[in-house]
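INFO  loader      accepted 1 record
INFO  loader      residues=439
INFO  predictor   begin
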Amino acid sequence: MRTLVLLPVLGRRGRARRAARGDAFARSPQSRLEEAIGLAAAIDLEVAASGLVPLEAPRPATLFGSGKVEELAGLVRAEEAGLVVVDHPLTPVQQRNLETAWGAKVLDRTGLILEIFGRRARTREGRLQVELAHLVYQKSRLVRSWTHLERQRGGFGFLGGPGETQIEADRRIIGERIDSIRKELEQVRRTRGLHRKSREREPYPSVALVGYTNAGKSTLFNALTGASVLAEDTLFATLDPTIRSLPLPGGSKAVISDTVGFISDLPTTLIAAFRATLEEVLEADLVLHVRDIAGAASGSERADVNAVLSQLGIEAEAEPARVMEVWNKADLLDEPAFRRAKSEAARAEAVLVSATTRYGLDDLSGEIERRLNLRSETIEIALKPEEGALAHWIHENCEVIARRGMGEGVTALRIRVAPEKRERLARLAGPARLKLAAE
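INFO  predictor   done
INFO  writer      dumping tokens
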């Protein structure tokens, strides 16, 4: 479909209003327009024209002033566009009035992201989450000015009372479906919780990848685990969470999950809908924030991701031991930029990598293990020759730092054990035999 992509650029008064609400303007208008074009391209829309549209202050009826609406109507006709994407929140009234004025379908940023998510969801859980977000969005679009919703429908009390209007019936039906999906997603959440508990019984520390969409999370996930998760140079290539085993240099392992990408102005309905998926992030022992360090908007994307993490209850700045930055796409930097990024990464306690060339992945694996080990205790235990099963469990589940013979076949081990495995070790060996190395 031939599409126009428009980015309203707020004037001083509009910026002041949004700044008062805490909205960030770190990204340049041109980079925001390029992202909007990328969003349209993600669902194969043919972008016939795009541009920045000055906007001193939003108008309640049409967002733009009447003169600008007329001017843009001429552009829509000239380009024979069937769809106009306005990269700005639109009220239902604004959307309807613009569609009438331009004679074309109009989508705002939220609607466009929902369309992408609807195309990309693969699992039942993903489709339910997208449908929920769609329905919450559609419910707010039901305004009385659409003529097909003005019809009265009589009734016998089966689907609605006598005289119930079509809009009321539509709103009620949507509300019932929303309730039904939320119940199904609650079951998904419980099932996911049971899976986490089964992993805890095994148990392995958990790592979660987060980052701005198209930062290279899935490519990095595949490089670390040997998986084959879809990894494309497109926005929102990954919607459904994937969990794999992550081998660590010391011989132990963790579980790592790849999650949906974040984006600036991510609709709150989507954050709410994907909360079950994002619980993998909330429960993770270590969160890897993957950044496209070669991108011009890397700094503002970092702020956007941290803002979403904050909404989830994770304060990245306050939890540096738990949230680690991974600066990806080092292969796209020229030599001076590469040297500068490497120096800055060291100061920021980040790891510079390239998921495509595998540069820095050994350093990353080592740093993941080091960070996870910060949670662990160092313990000394003496094993008798007949305790082969216990020795095997320790080697499979703990990191053996040192060993020494004590005579008569007894071996003293110094081991590092994660807190979630401490109780199991105490049951297997007896708590009195476990001594902290510092003692």
